[in-house]
Design a protein that fits this description.
Elements: H1 3-13, E1 26-29, E2 39-42, H2 47-52, E3 58-61, H3 78-88, E4 92-95, H4 98-113, E5 117-119, E6 129-136, H5 137-148, E7 155-156, E8 161-171, E9 183-187, H6 191-199, E10 203-206, H7 209-213, H8 216-230, E11 235-237, E12 246-248, E13 251-253
Parallel strand pairs: 2-3, 2-11, 3-4, 8-9, 9-10
Antiparallel strand pairs: 1-4, 5-6, 6-8, 7-10, 12-13
Length: 254
């Protein structure tokens, strides 16, 4: 099966044209006419993972390996080190980032993982998924973190009750000014983000970046399953790892 065939299937599922202007989703490494033996799905890339991937394969990731234009490739940083391995092993790379956030991932996490009472969105270009809650803030925060397997996290509590919540997986604080809810769930919340949210009277629950997006693998494989069976291909899910570990009272934990 050619890379172009897979690309077209992915584009039909979640059009690459929907990606944000700053994004770099699509075919990042490889040639559309190349034929592939195996498909791997992963949130990100790392050296250990690439060393296990067979030659002449295709990897589909959530996060693009290349964002900014490359002025030199000297194998001394994360991006160029991995590019060297990809090229040497003739491994193609397609990334589905903000396009699949909009069409699938945010909704999947909100509806299938968190089991929220979704308010169906009208515009496919909207990142933010809304849901009715009507629960005590502490109770709601406990439910959310439990379902995502988060033992502890940061919150901004502006009200004792959550009526309506907005959710964006990954890092969505740049969308805070667009949030039309009294509580917002997203990851990578910084100090000044928290101060801004407090001034807007919007409570926050940090659902973290990795923990809220780790479902990309199972989501994409499920969506691709029928098409892959027709072509006698099977997607191999990478055991994606969170680059962060947490230190609690001097003890490092996962």
């Amino acid at each position: 099966m050619k890379i172009l065939d897979i690309y077209n299937i992915l584009d039909e599922i979640s059009p690459f044209s929907l990606q944000e202007k700053w994004d770099n989703s699509g075919l990042l490494v490889g040639n559309f006419e190349d034929k592939i033996k195996k498909i791997y799905v992963s949130i990100d890339l790392d050296e250990d993972f690439l060393n296990e991937v067979e030659e002449n394969s295709l990897i589909i990731t959530h996060h693009p390996l290349i964002f900014a234009p490359l002025k030199k490739i000297n194998y001394d940083n994360y991006c160029t080190k991995l590019l060297k391995i990809l090229i040497q092993k003739n491994i193609a790379l397609i990334s589905m980032h903000t396009n699949i956030d909009k069409t699938h991932l945010n909704m999947y996490v909100a509806k299938d993982i968190l089991k929220l009472d979704i308010i169906e969105k009208e515009d496919i270009n909207d990142f933010i998924i809304y849901a009715n809650v009507n629960k005590d803030f502490d109770e709601f925060a406990k439910e959310i973190t439990s379902k995502l397997g988060i033992e502890f996290t940061n919150v901004v509590k502006c009200n004792n009750k959550v009526e309506k919540v907005g959710i964006v997986t990954g890092a969505g604080m740049s969308l805070l000014s667009e949030v039309k809810a009294d509580c917002f769930l997203t990851g990578d919340i910084k100090y000044h983000d928290a101060m801004d949210a407090k001034s807007r009277n919007i409570s926050l629950i940090d659902i973290r970046h990795y923990e809220s997006e780790k479902y990309f693998n199972e989501l994409l494989v499920g969506v691709l399953e029928k098409n892959l069976k027709k072509n006698e291909l099977k997607a191999i899910i990478s055991a994606s790892k969170n680059p962060f570990k947490f230190c609690i009272q001097g003890e490092t934990v996962e």
